[in-house]
Amino acid sequence: MKQEIKIPEVAEGVTGGTVVALKVAVGDQVVFDQTLLELETDKAVVAIPSPLEGQISEIRVAEGAEVEVGSVVMLLEPSAAPQEQPEVVAPSAVDAAPESSDSAGAEVATEPETPSFGEKEQPVAELPLEQKDGHRGPLVAAAAPSVRHLARELGVDIHQVSGAGPGGRINADDIRLYVNHKMQSVANQGSSAANAHHSRALPDFSRFGPSRREPLSKVRQLTADAMSYAWSTIPMVTQYDKAAIDSVEKFRKEFNRSAGPETRLTMTAFLVKVCAAALRVFPQVNSALDLSRRELILHHFINIGVAVDTPGGLLVPVIREAESKGVEKIAAELTELAARARERRLGPAEMEGGTFTISNLGGIGGSAFTPIVYAPQVAILGVSTAEMQPKWNGSEFEPQLMLPLSLTYDHRVIDGAAGARFLRWICRALENPLNLVMKG
Protein backbone atom coordinates (compact mmCIF):
# COMPACT_ATOMS: atom_id res chain seq x y z
CA MET A 1 0.00 0.00 0.00
CA LYS A 2 1.37 3.39 -0.99
CA GLN A 3 2.37 5.78 1.78
CA GLU A 4 1.50 9.47 1.56
CA ILE A 5 4.39 11.82 2.29
CA LYS A 6 3.02 14.99 3.91
CA ILE A 7 4.63 18.27 4.93
CA PRO A 8 5.06 18.01 8.73
CA GLU A 9 4.82 20.87 11.24
CA VAL A 10 8.46 21.94 11.25
CA ALA A 11 8.23 24.69 13.88
CA GLU A 12 5.68 26.62 15.89
CA GLY A 13 3.91 29.23 13.83
CA VAL A 14 5.06 27.80 10.47
CA THR A 15 2.05 26.98 8.27
CA GLY A 16 3.83 26.24 5.00
CA GLY A 17 6.62 27.25 2.67
CA THR A 18 8.21 27.06 -0.76
CA VAL A 19 9.75 23.90 -2.26
CA VAL A 20 13.26 25.06 -3.13
CA ALA A 21 14.77 21.70 -4.08
CA LEU A 22 13.56 18.19 -4.90
CA LYS A 23 16.18 15.64 -3.82
CA VAL A 24 14.57 12.53 -5.36
CA ALA A 25 12.82 11.51 -8.59
CA VAL A 26 10.04 9.04 -9.41
CA GLY A 27 11.43 5.51 -9.21
CA ASP A 28 14.21 6.34 -6.74
CA GLN A 29 14.81 3.98 -3.83
CA VAL A 30 15.06 5.86 -0.53
CA VAL A 31 16.00 4.90 3.00
CA PHE A 32 14.59 6.04 6.31
CA ASP A 33 15.41 9.67 7.15
CA GLN A 34 16.78 10.42 3.66
CA THR A 35 16.04 13.98 2.53
CA LEU A 36 13.20 14.05 -0.01
CA LEU A 37 12.92 17.81 -0.53
CA GLU A 38 13.97 21.14 0.98
CA LEU A 39 11.31 23.59 2.12
CA GLU A 40 11.96 27.29 2.65
CA THR A 41 9.83 28.65 5.50
CA ASP A 42 9.62 31.95 7.32
CA LYS A 43 12.30 30.74 9.73
CA ALA A 44 14.79 28.76 7.64
CA VAL A 45 15.19 26.10 4.96
CA VAL A 46 14.23 22.69 6.34
CA ALA A 47 14.98 19.23 5.00
CA ILE A 48 11.89 17.00 4.78
CA PRO A 49 12.98 13.37 5.46
CA SER A 50 11.46 10.07 4.41
CA PRO A 51 9.50 8.39 7.22
CA LEU A 52 10.41 4.91 5.97
CA GLU A 53 12.28 2.88 3.33
CA GLY A 54 10.81 2.33 -0.11
CA GLN A 55 10.45 3.58 -3.68
CA ILE A 56 9.12 6.97 -4.80
CA SER A 57 6.06 6.26 -6.99
CA GLU A 58 4.71 9.79 -7.48
CA ILE A 59 5.80 13.39 -6.91
CA ARG A 60 2.98 15.92 -6.70
CA VAL A 61 4.95 19.16 -6.37
CA ALA A 62 7.57 20.99 -8.39
CA GLU A 63 10.40 23.24 -7.32
CA GLY A 64 9.06 26.71 -6.58
CA ALA A 65 5.64 25.42 -5.49
CA GLU A 66 3.96 26.83 -2.37
CA VAL A 67 2.78 24.08 0.00
CA GLU A 68 1.02 24.03 3.36
CA VAL A 69 1.66 21.90 6.43
CA GLY A 70 -0.26 18.63 6.00
CA SER A 71 -0.37 18.68 2.20
CA VAL A 72 0.62 15.49 0.33
CA VAL A 73 3.76 16.05 -1.76
CA MET A 74 4.77 12.50 -2.69
CA LEU A 75 3.65 8.88 -2.68
CA LEU A 76 6.03 6.15 -1.56
CA GLU A 77 5.79 2.38 -2.07
CA PRO A 78 7.20 0.84 1.14
CA SER A 79 9.72 -1.98 0.99
CA ALA A 80 8.28 -5.53 0.98
CA ALA A 81 9.12 -6.06 4.66
CA PRO A 82 9.36 -2.61 6.19
CA GLN A 83 10.90 -2.44 9.60
CA GLU A 84 9.32 -0.31 12.27
CA GLN A 85 11.09 3.02 12.26
CA PRO A 86 11.52 5.40 15.17
CA GLU A 87 9.38 8.50 15.24
CA VAL A 88 10.72 11.21 12.97
CA VAL A 89 11.85 14.27 14.89
CA ALA A 90 11.18 17.76 13.54
CA PRO A 91 13.18 18.26 10.32
CA SER A 92 16.52 19.91 10.38
CA ALA A 93 16.93 23.33 8.87
CA VAL A 94 19.30 25.73 7.22
CA ASP A 95 20.60 28.94 6.00
CA ALA A 96 22.90 30.32 8.60
CA ALA A 97 26.56 31.10 8.29
CA PRO A 98 29.57 31.45 10.50
CA GLU A 99 29.54 34.27 12.96
CA SER A 100 31.20 37.54 12.11
CA SER A 101 34.95 37.70 12.35
CA ASP A 102 36.73 38.72 15.49
CA SER A 103 36.68 42.35 16.46
CA ALA A 104 37.54 44.45 19.50
CA GLY A 105 36.67 47.97 21.40
CA ALA A 106 36.65 51.22 23.80
CA GLU A 107 35.69 52.95 27.10
CA VAL A 108 33.69 55.75 28.83
CA ALA A 109 33.25 57.24 32.30
CA THR A 110 30.88 55.59 34.73
CA GLU A 111 28.36 56.81 37.26
CA PRO A 112 28.77 55.99 40.95
CA GLU A 113 25.33 54.35 41.03
CA THR A 114 26.44 51.63 38.59
CA PRO A 115 26.14 48.23 40.31
CA SER A 116 29.46 46.55 40.96
CA PHE A 117 30.21 43.10 39.52
CA GLY A 118 27.87 40.52 41.02
CA GLU A 119 25.56 43.14 42.55
CA LYS A 120 22.08 42.97 41.08
CA GLU A 121 19.68 45.79 40.33
CA GLN A 122 16.25 45.34 41.88
CA PRO A 123 14.00 43.70 39.28
CA VAL A 124 10.86 45.47 38.18
CA ALA A 125 8.11 42.86 38.28
CA GLU A 126 5.28 44.94 36.88
CA LEU A 127 4.85 48.20 35.04
CA PRO A 128 2.72 50.83 36.83
CA LEU A 129 -0.02 50.62 34.22
CA GLU A 130 -3.66 49.78 34.59
CA GLN A 131 -4.59 46.13 34.11
CA LYS A 132 -6.86 45.56 31.16
CA ASP A 133 -8.23 42.06 30.80
CA GLY A 134 -9.66 40.82 27.54
CA HIS A 135 -12.61 38.50 27.09
CA ARG A 136 -12.30 35.20 28.93
CA GLY A 137 -15.07 32.94 27.65
CA PRO A 138 -15.66 29.35 28.74
CA LEU A 139 -14.85 27.97 25.28
CA VAL A 140 -11.40 27.18 23.92
CA ALA A 141 -10.49 29.30 20.90
CA ALA A 142 -10.71 27.54 17.54
CA ALA A 143 -6.96 27.46 16.92
CA ALA A 144 -4.08 25.01 16.87
CA PRO A 145 -1.81 24.85 19.97
CA SER A 146 1.00 26.49 18.00
CA VAL A 147 -1.29 29.42 17.13
CA ARG A 148 -2.37 29.83 20.76
CA HIS A 149 1.31 29.75 21.77
CA LEU A 150 2.08 32.51 19.24
CA ALA A 151 -0.79 34.59 20.64
CA ARG A 152 0.58 34.24 24.17
CA GLU A 153 4.08 35.20 23.01
CA LEU A 154 2.74 38.37 21.37
CA GLY A 155 0.48 39.22 24.33
CA VAL A 156 -2.74 38.74 22.34
CA ASP A 157 -6.09 37.73 23.84
CA ILE A 158 -6.96 35.12 21.22
CA HIS A 159 -10.71 35.49 21.96
CA GLN A 160 -10.55 38.98 20.43
CA VAL A 161 -9.12 37.71 17.12
CA SER A 162 -11.38 37.01 14.16
CA GLY A 163 -10.43 33.82 12.35
CA ALA A 164 -10.35 33.72 8.55
CA GLY A 165 -10.31 29.92 8.36
CA PRO A 166 -13.22 27.49 7.97
CA GLY A 167 -15.77 27.96 10.74
CA GLY A 168 -13.86 30.98 12.05
CA ARG A 169 -10.70 28.97 12.80
CA ILE A 170 -7.78 31.23 13.76
CA ASN A 171 -4.38 30.85 12.12
CA ALA A 172 -1.00 32.52 12.66
CA ASP A 173 -1.65 35.12 9.96
CA ASP A 174 -4.83 36.20 11.79
CA ILE A 175 -2.77 36.75 14.98
CA ARG A 176 -0.12 38.77 13.15
CA LEU A 177 -2.75 40.85 11.37
CA TYR A 178 -4.49 41.56 14.69
CA VAL A 179 -1.20 42.62 16.32
CA ASN A 180 -0.31 44.79 13.34
CA HIS A 181 -3.64 46.63 13.42
CA LYS A 182 -3.61 47.03 17.22
CA MET A 183 -0.04 48.27 17.50
CA GLN A 184 -0.44 50.69 14.62
CA SER A 185 -3.47 52.26 16.26
CA VAL A 186 -1.82 52.42 19.70
CA ALA A 187 1.69 53.50 18.73
CA ASN A 188 1.06 55.59 15.66
CA GLN A 189 -1.95 57.85 15.28
CA GLY A 190 -0.72 58.67 11.83
CA SER A 191 -1.12 55.09 10.67
CA SER A 192 -3.21 56.12 7.69
CA ALA A 193 -0.29 58.15 6.37
CA ALA A 194 2.06 55.25 7.07
CA ASN A 195 -0.21 52.84 5.21
CA ALA A 196 -0.42 55.26 2.31
CA HIS A 197 3.37 55.40 2.21
CA HIS A 198 3.62 51.60 2.36
CA SER A 199 1.23 51.20 -0.60
CA ARG A 200 2.62 54.09 -2.65
CA ALA A 201 3.10 53.10 -6.25
CA LEU A 202 6.69 52.90 -7.52
CA PRO A 203 7.77 54.98 -10.49
CA ASP A 204 8.23 53.45 -13.92
CA PHE A 205 11.93 52.62 -13.65
CA SER A 206 12.09 51.58 -17.32
CA ARG A 207 12.12 55.29 -18.19
CA PHE A 208 15.56 55.57 -16.57
CA GLY A 209 17.22 52.34 -17.64
CA PRO A 210 17.04 48.54 -17.43
CA SER A 211 16.12 46.81 -14.14
CA ARG A 212 15.26 43.30 -13.05
CA ARG A 213 13.06 41.89 -10.28
CA GLU A 214 13.97 39.20 -7.75
CA PRO A 215 11.49 37.53 -5.41
CA LEU A 216 12.26 38.05 -1.72
CA SER A 217 13.35 34.90 0.08
CA LYS A 218 11.22 33.76 3.02
CA VAL A 219 14.02 34.79 5.37
CA ARG A 220 14.15 38.29 3.83
CA GLN A 221 10.34 38.59 4.01
CA LEU A 222 10.38 37.61 7.68
CA THR A 223 13.21 40.06 8.40
CA ALA A 224 11.35 42.88 6.64
CA ASP A 225 8.18 42.12 8.60
CA ALA A 226 9.98 41.86 11.96
CA MET A 227 12.03 45.02 11.43
CA SER A 228 9.01 47.03 10.24
CA TYR A 229 7.02 45.86 13.25
CA ALA A 230 9.82 46.74 15.67
CA TRP A 231 10.53 50.13 14.09
CA SER A 232 6.87 51.20 14.10
CA THR A 233 5.98 49.97 17.60
CA ILE A 234 9.09 50.26 19.82
CA PRO A 235 10.45 53.65 20.95
CA MET A 236 14.17 52.90 20.69
CA VAL A 237 17.22 54.64 22.11
CA THR A 238 20.83 53.77 21.24
CA GLN A 239 23.60 54.18 23.82
CA TYR A 240 27.26 54.23 22.73
CA ASP A 241 30.38 53.30 24.68
CA LYS A 242 33.87 51.84 24.19
CA ALA A 243 35.82 49.14 26.00
CA ALA A 244 39.60 48.81 26.21
CA ILE A 245 40.16 45.16 25.32
CA ASP A 246 43.96 44.86 25.19
CA SER A 247 44.03 42.24 27.97
CA VAL A 248 41.24 40.03 26.69
CA GLU A 249 42.52 40.24 23.10
CA LYS A 250 46.04 39.27 24.23
CA PHE A 251 44.65 36.29 26.14
CA ARG A 252 42.47 35.28 23.17
CA LYS A 253 45.40 35.25 20.74
CA GLU A 254 47.66 33.33 23.13
CA PHE A 255 44.95 30.74 23.75
CA ASN A 256 44.30 30.27 20.03
CA ARG A 257 47.95 29.47 19.30
CA SER A 258 47.47 26.04 20.85
CA ALA A 259 43.71 25.59 20.37
CA GLY A 260 42.12 23.37 17.75
CA PRO A 261 39.80 24.78 15.06
CA GLU A 262 36.69 23.81 17.03
CA THR A 263 37.81 25.50 20.27
CA ARG A 264 39.32 28.73 18.94
CA LEU A 265 38.09 31.70 20.94
CA THR A 266 36.42 34.66 19.25
CA MET A 267 35.54 38.09 20.59
CA THR A 268 31.88 37.20 20.07
CA ALA A 269 32.24 34.28 22.49
CA PHE A 270 33.61 36.63 25.17
CA LEU A 271 30.76 39.06 24.49
CA VAL A 272 28.15 36.31 24.89
CA LYS A 273 29.61 35.37 28.29
CA VAL A 274 29.91 38.98 29.48
CA CYS A 275 26.41 39.90 28.32
CA ALA A 276 24.97 36.84 30.07
CA ALA A 277 26.61 37.99 33.31
CA ALA A 278 25.34 41.55 32.78
CA LEU A 279 21.78 40.32 32.25
CA ARG A 280 21.92 38.64 35.67
CA VAL A 281 22.88 41.97 37.25
CA PHE A 282 20.30 43.93 35.22
CA PRO A 283 17.29 41.53 35.00
CA GLN A 284 15.06 44.22 33.50
CA VAL A 285 17.11 44.03 30.28
CA ASN A 286 16.39 40.28 30.12
CA SER A 287 12.64 40.75 29.77
CA ALA A 288 9.64 41.12 27.45
CA LEU A 289 6.85 43.71 27.56
CA ASP A 290 3.28 42.37 27.62
CA LEU A 291 1.15 45.41 26.76
CA SER A 292 -2.10 43.43 26.69
CA ARG A 293 -1.71 42.66 30.41
CA ARG A 294 0.31 45.78 31.28
CA GLU A 295 3.09 43.60 32.70
CA LEU A 296 6.82 43.12 32.31
CA ILE A 297 7.87 39.47 31.92
CA LEU A 298 11.22 38.93 33.66
CA HIS A 299 12.95 35.82 32.32
CA HIS A 300 14.77 33.47 34.68
CA PHE A 301 16.69 32.03 31.73
CA ILE A 302 19.30 33.75 29.55
CA ASN A 303 19.36 32.80 25.87
CA ILE A 304 21.57 35.00 23.71
CA GLY A 305 21.09 35.21 19.97
CA VAL A 306 24.05 35.92 17.70
CA ALA A 307 23.11 37.59 14.41
CA VAL A 308 24.88 36.09 11.41
CA ASP A 309 25.01 37.19 7.79
CA THR A 310 24.03 34.54 5.23
CA PRO A 311 23.42 34.58 1.47
CA GLY A 312 19.71 34.16 2.19
CA GLY A 313 19.54 36.95 4.75
CA LEU A 314 20.15 37.62 8.44
CA LEU A 315 19.60 34.71 10.85
CA VAL A 316 20.01 34.56 14.62
CA PRO A 317 20.96 31.20 16.15
CA VAL A 318 20.59 31.15 19.93
CA ILE A 319 23.07 30.13 22.64
CA ARG A 320 20.85 28.73 25.40
CA GLU A 321 21.61 29.07 29.12
CA ALA A 322 24.61 31.21 28.21
CA GLU A 323 25.23 32.21 31.82
CA SER A 324 26.06 28.61 32.80
CA LYS A 325 28.63 28.05 30.02
CA GLY A 326 32.31 28.96 29.89
CA VAL A 327 33.81 31.02 27.08
CA GLU A 328 35.47 27.96 25.54
CA LYS A 329 32.20 26.03 25.44
CA ILE A 330 30.35 29.04 23.99
CA ALA A 331 33.00 29.41 21.28
CA ALA A 332 32.76 25.70 20.41
CA GLU A 333 28.97 25.91 20.26
CA LEU A 334 29.09 28.93 17.96
CA THR A 335 31.55 27.13 15.68
CA GLU A 336 29.40 24.00 15.65
CA LEU A 337 26.23 25.97 14.87
CA ALA A 338 27.98 27.70 11.98
CA ALA A 339 29.30 24.40 10.57
CA ARG A 340 25.87 22.75 10.65
CA ALA A 341 24.34 25.87 9.14
CA ARG A 342 26.71 25.66 6.18
CA GLU A 343 25.69 22.01 5.79
CA ARG A 344 22.00 22.97 5.92
CA ARG A 345 21.42 21.11 9.18
CA LEU A 346 20.50 23.95 11.56
CA GLY A 347 17.08 23.42 13.14
CA PRO A 348 14.40 26.15 13.39
CA ALA A 349 14.18 25.63 17.16
CA GLU A 350 17.83 26.69 17.42
CA MET A 351 16.82 30.18 16.28
CA GLU A 352 13.98 30.63 18.78
CA GLY A 353 13.73 31.67 22.42
CA GLY A 354 16.38 34.41 22.51
CA THR A 355 16.13 37.00 25.29
CA PHE A 356 18.97 39.29 24.10
CA THR A 357 20.86 39.62 20.81
CA ILE A 358 24.42 40.47 19.76
CA SER A 359 25.14 41.78 16.24
CA ASN A 360 28.89 41.80 15.56
CA LEU A 361 29.90 43.72 12.41
CA GLY A 362 33.50 44.13 13.53
CA GLY A 363 34.84 41.81 10.87
CA ILE A 364 33.31 43.97 8.13
CA GLY A 365 34.20 47.45 9.38
CA GLY A 366 32.65 50.64 10.70
CA SER A 367 32.99 52.66 13.88
CA ALA A 368 29.35 52.51 15.10
CA PHE A 369 25.80 51.57 14.07
CA THR A 370 22.31 51.48 15.57
CA PRO A 371 20.92 47.93 15.64
CA ILE A 372 17.13 47.48 15.80
CA VAL A 373 15.59 45.73 18.80
CA TYR A 374 14.25 42.29 17.87
CA ALA A 375 10.79 42.07 19.48
CA PRO A 376 9.76 40.70 21.93
CA GLN A 377 13.26 41.31 23.29
CA VAL A 378 13.93 44.74 24.77
CA ALA A 379 17.61 45.26 23.89
CA ILE A 380 20.32 44.40 21.36
CA LEU A 381 24.09 44.98 21.42
CA GLY A 382 25.91 46.15 18.29
CA VAL A 383 29.67 45.57 17.97
CA SER A 384 31.88 47.52 15.55
CA THR A 385 35.54 47.29 14.53
CA ALA A 386 38.21 47.66 17.22
CA GLU A 387 41.10 50.01 16.60
CA MET A 388 44.11 51.39 18.42
CA GLN A 389 43.41 54.80 19.97
CA PRO A 390 45.36 57.10 22.33
CA LYS A 391 44.08 57.11 25.89
CA TRP A 392 45.19 59.40 28.73
CA ASN A 393 46.46 57.43 31.73
CA GLY A 394 46.91 60.46 34.02
CA SER A 395 50.40 61.44 32.92
CA GLU A 396 50.60 60.63 29.22
CA PHE A 397 48.73 59.17 26.26
CA GLU A 398 49.17 55.47 25.65
CA PRO A 399 47.83 53.31 22.79
CA GLN A 400 44.94 51.02 23.66
CA LEU A 401 42.75 48.70 21.60
CA MET A 402 39.22 50.11 21.83
CA LEU A 403 36.01 48.24 20.96
CA PRO A 404 32.99 50.41 19.99
CA LEU A 405 29.68 49.11 21.37
CA SER A 406 26.12 50.25 20.61
CA LEU A 407 23.21 49.26 22.86
CA THR A 408 19.73 49.84 21.44
CA TYR A 409 16.89 49.36 23.93
CA ASP A 410 13.12 49.73 24.32
CA HIS A 411 12.64 53.03 26.19
CA ARG A 412 9.28 51.83 27.54
CA VAL A 413 11.16 49.28 29.63
CA ILE A 414 14.69 50.67 30.06
CA ASP A 415 15.46 54.26 31.07
CA GLY A 416 18.51 56.09 29.72
CA ALA A 417 20.43 55.85 33.01
CA ALA A 418 19.78 52.10 33.26
CA GLY A 419 20.86 51.60 29.64
CA ALA A 420 24.08 53.56 30.21
CA ARG A 421 24.89 51.59 33.37
CA PHE A 422 24.24 48.25 31.65
CA LEU A 423 26.57 49.10 28.76
CA ARG A 424 29.23 50.51 31.09
CA TRP A 425 29.09 47.29 33.12
CA ILE A 426 29.78 45.31 29.94
CA CYS A 427 32.75 47.56 29.13
CA ARG A 428 34.21 47.12 32.61
CA ALA A 429 33.80 43.35 32.40
CA LEU A 430 35.67 43.25 29.08
CA GLU A 431 38.43 45.45 30.51
CA ASN A 432 38.74 43.42 33.74
CA PRO A 433 37.38 39.92 33.00
CA LEU A 434 38.77 38.48 36.25
CA ASN A 435 36.02 40.39 38.07
CA LEU A 436 33.52 37.96 36.54
CA VAL A 437 35.31 35.09 38.27
CA MET A 438 35.75 36.95 41.56
CA LYS A 439 32.14 38.10 41.82
CA GLY A 440 30.31 35.35 39.88
> What's the shape?
globular
CATH topology type of one domain: Chloramphenicol Acetyltransferase
Terminal CA distance reads 61 Å
Radius of gyration: 25 Å
Summarize the amount of helix as a percent range. Answer: 25-40%
Please tell me the overall pLDDT.
81
For this entry, give a set of tags.
440 residues, alpha+beta, OB fold (Dihydrolipoamide Acetyltransferase, E2P), Chloramphenicol Acetyltransferase, 8-stranded mixed beta sheet, 4-stranded antiparallel beta sheet, 9 helices, 18 strands
Summarize the structure.
The chain is α+β, with helices and mostly antiparallel strands and 440 residues long. The protein contains nine helices and 18 strands.
Question: What would you say this structure looks like, in words?
Answer:
By secondary structure, the chain is α+β, with helices and mostly antiparallel strands. Among the domains are: 76 residues, RNA polymerase II/Efflux pump adaptor protein, barrel-sandwich hybrid domain (OB fold (Dihydrolipoamide Acetyltransferase, E2P)); 210 residues, Chloramphenicol Acetyltransferase. Helix content is 26%, strand content 22%. It has nine helices and 18 strands. The strands form four sheets. Strands 9, 12, 13, 14, 15, 16, 17 and 18 form an eight-stranded mixed β-sheet that branches. Strands 1-8-6-3 form a four-stranded antiparallel β-sheet, with no helix packed on it. It has a four-stranded antiparallel β-sheet with strand order 5-4-2-7, with no helix packed on it. Strand 10 and strand 11 form a beta hairpin. Helix 6 packs across helix 7 and helix 6 packs across helix 8. The longest helix has 16 residues. It starts with a strand and ends with a helix. About 14% of the residues have low confidence.
